DNA sequence: CGACGGGACGC
DNA sequence: CGACGGGACGC
């Protein structure tokens, strides 16, 4: 994964005008954000959320843009598992617009979320997804859509492709805006032969993913196995129970809030790899353990400093971010940004050494009370830093519990902030990946918050 | 590249 | 150059 790619929301999709869906020759999916919603300019639908992300985490992320009226993560009625999408209704239209601009295309853990206007609630929406088979292997998504477009507004479409070869499997999905549009499409197209083709296509309503997924019970195990290949559990080093298993999100408990007033309790631990036991003192996370873990992670190919030759630079992303903010900032005033777009690059090894030095005598810091999570101290921020930027930077590595930017009397950032993340490993990875990077011409410093004052 | 329709505003 | 919050705990 290139670092340049880390912070690249789809800024091209700023919905100031209807989005033209673009296609490449090999594209097999289509999921353009809604733009031309006539009403409901405050209500957003969020798709492709990471599996473990909770409603409160979604709320926290989107509240960084502005006041929200409601937030609903849609979950399986029986298991409570997130279905990976939800709704965020803002108080103000301009905040909803900024949320689309800022967060559509944002990479969260292993997902790229989609943020678009929710269609007005309508009983015709449900069950309008079609399963199409018999698609000629050479047919493009664009061609498939052109067959279905006469029957209504297509919300999403996709042609499945072979994981290995990347070639079309000849089956796909077309989701219409309304069920009766899907109905007519079935009646007209099922058993038909598209022009220029030789075989019939089959068109029917798609199954509910939850009801036909035999791998459902395996997904947790697969996730654990996948995690085991990319991250070294702390227990390997410490002989201690594993913390929550890694990025990516797994079971419904994965991001369960830590309710203990005291130390971390591994209530969300993955049963396959850990035993819930006593609490884990913060001083368990010694410097040597951190360094060993760093080395082991480097062996696993996880540590970006192990392979990267240059420190990533978020200047371009920052400018894009600021442009977004400026584009809609008229009512929000007080934006006196002057982005110093210097392109300073620092050697990765130097940054790593710096990290080691800063981590000395520093243990993972658990906030004292109600704000559960592992708290990172983020320094060398420019005076115009805002919450959303930090959300975008850090949420790539996992769930953020809280972002706190310290400001002076004129609301200028005092140069530092605290970012609390619910998962230790994710916070650690954020530190490894972001410390020493360039943000707005400054070398960002990210370390676990010290439990004692800096000059103690 | 992945799962786009909840809940409500009374029954 | 410089370098770690705030609310609320309740004696």
UniProtKB/TrEMBL annotation:
<dbReference type="GO" id="GO:0008143">
    <property type="term" value="F:poly(A) binding"/>
</dbReference>
<dbReference type="GO" id="GO:0003727">
    <property type="term" value="F:single-stranded RNA binding"/>
</dbReference>
<dbReference type="InterPro" id="IPR012677">
    <property type="entry name" value="Nucleotide-bd_a/b_plait_sf"/>
</dbReference>
<dbReference type="InterPro" id="IPR006548">
    <property type="entry name" value="ELAD_HU_SF"/>
</dbReference>
<dbReference type="InterPro" id="IPR034775">
    <property type="entry name" value="Elav_RRM1"/>
</dbReference>
<dbReference type="GO" id="GO:0050686">
    <property type="term" value="P:negative regulation of mRNA processing"/>
</dbReference>
<dbReference type="Pfam" id="PF00076">
    <property type="entry name" value="RRM_1"/>
</dbReference>
<keyword id="KW-0677">Repeat</keyword>
<dbReference type="InterPro" id="IPR002343">
    <property type="entry name" value="Hud_Sxl_RNA"/>
</dbReference>
<feature type="domain" description="RRM">
    <location>
        <begin position="42"/>
        <end position="120"/>
    </location>
</feature>
<dbReference type="GO" id="GO:0045664">
    <property type="term" value="P:regulation of neuron differentiation"/>
</dbReference>
<dbReference type="GO" id="GO:0016607">
    <property type="term" value="C:nuclear speck"/>
</dbReference>
<dbReference type="GO" id="GO:0003730">
    <property type="term" value="F:mRNA 3'-UTR binding"/>
</dbReference>
<protein>
    <submittedName>
        <fullName>RRM domain-containing protein</fullName>
    </submittedName>
</protein>
<dbReference type="InterPro" id="IPR000504">
    <property type="entry name" value="RRM_dom"/>
</dbReference>
<dbReference type="GO" id="GO:0035150">
    <property type="term" value="P:regulation of tube size"/>
</dbReference>
<dbReference type="GO" id="GO:0002064">
    <property type="term" value="P:epithelial cell development"/>
</dbReference>
<dbReference type="GO" id="GO:0005634">
    <property type="term" value="C:nucleus"/>
</dbReference>
<dbReference type="GO" id="GO:0000381">
    <property type="term" value="P:regulation of alternative mRNA splicing, via spliceosome"/>
</dbReference>
<feature type="domain" description="RRM">
    <location>
        <begin position="374"/>
        <end position="451"/>
    </location>
</feature>
<feature type="domain" description="RRM">
    <location>
        <begin position="128"/>
        <end position="208"/>
    </location>
</feature>
<dbReference type="GO" id="GO:1990904">
    <property type="term" value="C:ribonucleoprotein complex"/>
</dbReference>
<dbReference type="GO" id="GO:0008266">
    <property type="term" value="F:poly(U) RNA binding"/>
</dbReference>
<comment type="similarity">
    <text>Belongs to the RRM elav family.</text>
</comment>
<dbReference type="GO" id="GO:0005829">
    <property type="term" value="C:cytosol"/>
</dbReference>
<dbReference type="InterPro" id="IPR035979">
    <property type="entry name" value="RBD_domain_sf"/>
</dbReference>
<keyword id="KW-0694">RNA-binding</keyword>
């Amino acid at each position: 994964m290139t670092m340049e790619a880390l912070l690249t929301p789809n800024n091209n999709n700023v919905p100031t005008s209807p989005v033209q869906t673009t296609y490449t020759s090999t594209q097999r999916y289509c999921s353009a954000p809604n733009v031309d919603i006539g009403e409901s300019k405050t209500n957003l639908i969020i798709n492709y959320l990471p599996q473990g992300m909770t409603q409160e985490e979604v709320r926290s992320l989107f509240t960084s843009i502005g006041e929200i009226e409601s937030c609903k993560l849609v979950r399986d009625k029986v298991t409570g598992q997130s279905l990976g999408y939800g709704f965020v209704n803002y108080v103000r239209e301009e905040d909803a617009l900024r949320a689309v601009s800022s967060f559509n295309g944002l990479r969260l853990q292993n997902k790229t979320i989609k943020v678009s206007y929710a269609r007005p609630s309508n009983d015709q929406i449900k069950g309008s997804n079609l399963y199409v088979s018999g698609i000629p292997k050479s047919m493009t998504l664009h061609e498939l859509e052109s067959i279905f477009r006469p029957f209504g507004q297509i919300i999403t479409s996709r042609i499945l492709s072979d994981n290995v070869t990347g070639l079309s499997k000849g089956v796909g999905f077309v989701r219409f805006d309304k069920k009766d549009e899907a109905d007519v499409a079935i009646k007209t197209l099922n058993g038909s032969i598209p022009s220029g083709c030789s075989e019939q296509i089959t068109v029917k309503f798609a199954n509910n993913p939850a009801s036909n997924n035999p791998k459902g019970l395996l997904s947790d195990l697969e996730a654990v196995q996948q995690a085991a290949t990319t991250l070294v559990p702390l227990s390997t080093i410490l002989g201690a129970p594993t913390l929550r298993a890694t990025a990516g999100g797994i079971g419904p408990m994965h991001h369960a809030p830590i309710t203990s007033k005291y130390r971390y309790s591994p209530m969300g631990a993955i049963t396959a790899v850990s035993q819930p036991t006593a609490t884990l003192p913060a001083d368990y996370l010694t410097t040597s353990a951190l360094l060993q873990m760093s080395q082991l992670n480097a062996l696993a190919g996880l540590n970006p400093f192990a392979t990267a030759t240059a420190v990533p630079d978020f200047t371009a992303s920052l400018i894009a971010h600021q442009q977004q903010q400026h584009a809609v900032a008229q009512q929000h005033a007080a934006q006196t940004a002057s982005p110093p777009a210097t392109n300073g690059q620092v050697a990765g090894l130097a940054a790593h050494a710096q990290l080691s030095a800063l981590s000395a005598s520093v243990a993972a810091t658990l906030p004292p009370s109600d704000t559960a999570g592992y708290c990172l101290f983020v320094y060398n921020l420019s005076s115009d830093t805002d919450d959303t930027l930090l959300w975008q930077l850090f949420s790539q590595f996992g769930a953020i519990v809280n972002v706190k930017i310290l400001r002076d009397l004129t609301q200028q950032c005092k140069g530092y902030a605290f970012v609390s993340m619910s998962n230790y490993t994710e916070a650690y990875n954020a530190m490894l990946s972001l410390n020493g990077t360039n943000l707005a011409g400054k070398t960002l410093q990210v370390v676990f918050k010290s439990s004692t004052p800096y000059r103690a």
